[in-house]
């Protein structure tokens, strides 16, 4: 999952300075995408469409892997 999120975000932004952290909290996998301020707009997209699409792809993969996930964005 971490590889999928890293692949998607680096190709959307063209920026290799993006980090994806994975934490396990009460059986839920929390993924935090840390990106520089100048590419946050690309990840969020118009009205949040891009981040919603990223979360949808992650949820689809989570269903296959039978895990609960949460995807968050944070500024570096």
Automatic annotation (TrEMBL):
For this UniProt record, the keywords arranged alphabetically read as follows: RNA-binding
Q: Name one GO molecular function term.
A: RNA binding
Q: Which InterPro entries match?
A: KH_dom-like_a/b (IPR015946), KH_sf_prok-type (IPR009019)
Q: Name one Pfam family in it.
A: KH_KhpA-B
Instruction: Name the domain of life this protein comes from.
Output: Bacteria
Q: What is this protein called?
A: Uncharacterized protein
Q: Which organism is it from?
A: Candidatus Blackburnbacteria bacterium RIFCSPHIGHO2_01_FULL_43_15b
